[in-house]
């Protein structure tokens, strides 16, 4: 991946974080932690890898993006708004009676592929999509993002077995391994154990990456396309609340409201990261 | 009729129709949870192996996989015993299928007490109640093999999820074969002016037998087959209650939340005669040697319906 592309996607991830922050605003609870851990993965999928068509969200040939961890939908809204699936003004109206954007993924929103949020169901839905696409000889690919806390849902493992039984290879699972669930660290609340070993034992092709490293995310998705006869899962090691110093590696901002002060601090932190990227880009541009 | 029917078995009729629907539409797919010999999806598996998906003993994953199929242009039929298809996968049906109103068809086989030997864990006493409570869901309860065929042809057109409960046993045919059918139809199988019995499933035949018995006592009983439990044809239900001295509902299902409740809800703003419910009285099933034996033990008989009619008309 070219250095310019990497910087561009890093900036995109920051823009997505700005959008998430805008949606959460001041005094309204919102899932900051698990949305921002996904910013780079979402940026690479929507702005680099996936074939999507915002003008025709139901285009049968589109690649699919599903959040099994539906509570992180703010990061998907952030991307869909950037791509023009719906007007940006909707972001401010998220989770209101007047607005389009629900608290969890809902199919009235253009670009949302399934109703998720009751955890543990996304991989099954994605497997059904993969099987249907295969019946139709449609080359579209299906991506489904799960949480590491979510892996305690038994249905995910039913689906993990099914996808291998049916040898689907147009399916990519991504585990957002931010190591924190709603009420605390995964190892303390309910330890989901050796996650890569479990997926290997279930017969998946397993790739482990730094989930904030753009080239690694892209390379893992490239590799997944070459694997035939079985599905691939990308275990993405991430930081919950990434990009916001006060929210990193804590359960406190899994779903919380921001004070005026914290909101301003968050904006300032993102601006600083953006200007660092811009100056780095200029330096590279001069070489 | 989309198939030539030579059976009194509802599940055989269901399986044969599924094959016929598969022939007519290449987007029909079937999902099974290791009960295909009982649900009769084995017939579809033989005819269309590439469109048959054995999901193993994992009903939750089966329901959500069907969601994925429906979201990708297919018409999935999900199959298991009624108790597992509805209960084990309730949250999946609710959230991923009913909220977005997907065209998923759910077959609850061996419904009610019809799997008499396997006992309470395998018998569904509450499937209609929990499916009826879900917004966007259509709930069907065919009376015999003939109506099963009619329903299978009609249900493909329903814009949204459909639950159909299928009895395990051969049942007497009460449906006139050449009458037109559409989802929502209430069949008036016997005219009467004193009392009305709204029945569903095998209880329709029991109600017809009860009506014969009551006729000998001079009580003239109307018998209706209410096979679309939801959306209920409220207007027809109300019209048939007019002028009646007694109203009875009969179902092989708990009296809480099923047909009886639906009829009472429909009549709530009308002035109407006393209503009695014949059904399973807030209890689970049990193992029995024979179907008629278990129905007798649970008061799901022509005699119980006749007694209910007598009590409501005051005789």
Your description of this structure?
The complex is a heterodimer of chains A (287) and B (315). Chain A has helices at 3-24, 32-36, 39-49, 73-83, 89-92, 122-135, 154-165, 186-189, 195-201, 214-226, 260-286; strands at residues 64-67, 142-147, 171-177, 180-181, 184-185, 205-210, 232-237. Chain A is α/β, with parallel strands linked by helices and 287 residues long. Chain A has a five-stranded parallel sheet with strand order 1-2-3-7-6, sandwiched between helices. A two-stranded antiparallel ribbon of chain A has the order 4-5. In chain A, helix 1 (3-24) crosses helix 4 (73-83), helix 1 (3-24) packs antiparallel against helix 11 (260-286) and helix 3 runs parallel beside helix 4 (73-83). Chain A is globular, with a radius of gyration of 18 Å. The model of chain A has no long low-confidence stretch (mean pLDDT 96). Chain B is globular, with a radius of gyration of 19 Å. The mean pLDDT of chain B is 98. Chain B is α/β, with parallel strands linked by helices. Chain B has 13 helices and twelve strands. In chain B, strand 11 (246-254), helix 11 (259-266) and strand 12 (275-280) form a beta-alpha-beta unit. In chain B, helix 1 (10-24) packs parallel to helix 8 (145-155). Helix content of chain B is 37%, strand content 19%. In chain B, the strands form two sheets. Chain B has a seven-stranded mixed sheet with strand order 2-1-3-4-6-5-10, with helices on both faces. In chain B, strands 7-9-8-11-12 form a five-stranded mixed sheet, sandwiched between helices. The interface between A and B is medium-sized, with 31 and 29 residues.
Give me some keywords for this one.
heterodimer; A: 287 residues; alpha/beta; five-stranded parallel beta sheet; 11 helices; 7 strands; globular; B: 315 residues; seven-stranded mixed beta sheet
Write the layout of secondary structure elements.
The complex is a heterodimer of chains A (287) and B (315).
Chain A: H1 3-24, H2 32-36, H3 39-49, E1 64-67, H4 73-83, H5 89-92, H6 122-135, E2 142-147, H7 154-165, E3 171-177, E4 180-181, E5 184-185, H8 186-189, H9 195-201, E6 205-210, H10 214-226, E7 232-237, H11 260-286
Parallel strand pairs in A: 1-2, 2-3, 3-7, 6-7
Antiparallel strand pairs in A: 4-5
Chain B: H1 10-24, E1 28-32, H2 36-39, H3 42-47, E2 52-54, H4 59-70, E3 75-81, H5 82-88, H6 90-98, E4 105-109, H7 127-132, E5 138-140, H8 145-155, E6 162-165, E7 186-190, E8 195-199, H9 203-215, E9 221-226, E10 228-230, H10 234-241, E11 246-254, H11 259-266, E12 275-280, H12 291-297, H13 302-313
Parallel strand pairs in B: 1-2, 1-3, 3-4, 4-6, 5-6, 8-9, 8-11, 11-12
Antiparallel strand pairs in B: 5-10, 7-9
């Amino acid at each position: 991946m070219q250095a310019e592309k990497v910087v561009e996607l890093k900036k995109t991830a920051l823009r997505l974080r700005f959008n998430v922050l805008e949606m959460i605003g001041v005094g309204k609870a919102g899932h900051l932690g698990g949305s921002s851990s996904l910013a780079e993965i979402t940026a690479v999928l929507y702005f680099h890898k996936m074939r999507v068509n915002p003008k025709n969200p139901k285009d049968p040939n589109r690649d699919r993006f599903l959040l099994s961890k539906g509570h992180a939908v703010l990061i998907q809204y952030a991307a869909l708004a950037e791509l023009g699936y719906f007007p940006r003004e909707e972001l401010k109206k998220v989770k209101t009676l007047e607005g389009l954007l629900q608290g969890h993924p809902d199919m009235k929103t253009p670009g949302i592929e399934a109703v998720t949020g009751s955890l543990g169901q996304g991989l099954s839905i994605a497997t059904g999509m993969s099987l249907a696409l295969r019946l139709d000889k449609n080359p579209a690919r299906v991506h489904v993002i799960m949480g590491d806390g979510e892996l305690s849902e038994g249905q995910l493992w039913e689906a993990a077995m099914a996808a291998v039984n049916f040898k689907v290879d147009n399916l990519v699972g991504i585990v957002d391994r931010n190591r924190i669930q709603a009420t605390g660290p995964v190892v303390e609340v309910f330890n989901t154990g050796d996650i890569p070993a479990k997926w290997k034992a279930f017969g998946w092709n397993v790739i482990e990456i730094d989930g904030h490293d753009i080239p690694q995310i892209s390379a893992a998705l490239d590799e997944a396309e070459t694997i035939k006869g079985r599905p691939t899962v990308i275990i993405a090691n991430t930081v919950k609340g990434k990009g916001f110093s006060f929210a990193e590696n804590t359960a406190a901002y899994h779903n919380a409201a921001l004070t005026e002060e914290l909101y301003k601090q968050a904006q300032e932190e993102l601006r600083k990261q953006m200007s660092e990227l811009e100056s780095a880009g200029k330096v590279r541009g001069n070489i | 009729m989309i198939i030539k029917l030579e059976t009194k078995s509802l599940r055989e009729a269901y399986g044969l129709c599924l094959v016929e629907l598969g022939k007519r539409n290449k987007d029909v797919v079937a999902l099974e949870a290791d009960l295909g010999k009982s649900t009769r999806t084995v017939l579809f598996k033989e005819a269309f192996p590439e469109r048959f998906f054995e999901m193993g003993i994992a009903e939750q994953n089966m329901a959500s996989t069907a969601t994925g199929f429906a979201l990708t242009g297919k018409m999935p039929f999900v199959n298991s015993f009624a108790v597992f298809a509805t209960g084990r996968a309730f949250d999946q049906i609710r959230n991923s299928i009913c909220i977005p109103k997907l065209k998923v068809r759910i077959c609850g086989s061996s419904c009610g007490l019809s799997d008499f030997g396997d006992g309470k864990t395998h018998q569904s006493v509450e499937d209609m109640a929990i499916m009826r409570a879900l917004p966007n869901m259509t709930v069907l309860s065919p009376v015999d093999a003939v109506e099963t065929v009619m329903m299978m042809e009609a249900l493909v057109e329903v814009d949204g999820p459909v639950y159909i409960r299928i009895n395990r046993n051969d049942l007497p045919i009460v449906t006139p074969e050449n009458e037109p059918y559409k989802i929502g139809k209430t069949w008036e199988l016997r005219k009467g002016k004193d009392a009305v019995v709204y029945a569903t499933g095998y209880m329709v035949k029991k109600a017809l037998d009860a009506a014969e018995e009551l006729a000998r006592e001079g009580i003239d009983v109307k018998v209706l087959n209410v096979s679309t439990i939801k959306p209920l044809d409220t207007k027809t239900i109300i019209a048939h209650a007019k002028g009646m001295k007694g109203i009875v509902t009969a179902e092989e299902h708990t009296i809480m939340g099923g047909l009886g409740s639906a009829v009472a809800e429909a009549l709530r703003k009308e002035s109407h005669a006393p209503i009695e419910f014949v059904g399973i009285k807030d209890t689970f099933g049990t193992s029995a040697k024979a179907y008629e034996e278990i129905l007798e033990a649970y008061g799901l008989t022509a005699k119980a319906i006749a007694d209910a009619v007598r009590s409501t008309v005051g005789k």
